[in-house]
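Both lines are retained for reference:
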Amino acid sequence: MLGTIAVNWWGVLVATVVVTVLAGLYFTVVVAKAYARAVGRAPDAPAPSGPLFIAGPMVCNLVTVLASAVLISALGIDTLGDALVFGAIVGLGYLVAMTFQIAINPVFARPLLYGLINGPYFLVASLITSTSLALV
């Protein structure tokens, strides 16, 4: 049995906001043209917009942060070192690996580029999330 799970709600809030803002900047400024190539759009083509593309990533980030919050609580992680190890394991072992697995799909024009662009964001987001949950 997992025992008592105490979710760090302030950490969840901080991590969700930070990784969502980071995603917005990363994907619309830093790698926008490369991302467009990876998914088969012209580099100067406008990115899709609308509520799904604005709220969707934030909701997905919230779900990921909440899952990490439950695991961090269950594992008793409360130091920066342990949080970073946890974040690296989740980031590389789940998020980056799943990014490449999802990209290996005929829908993606350049699957390896897609993974190489998205993977670093998900690793950094996992490290930020675990740090925030352990220390905020």
Observations:
- The two ends are 26 Å apart (CA to CA).
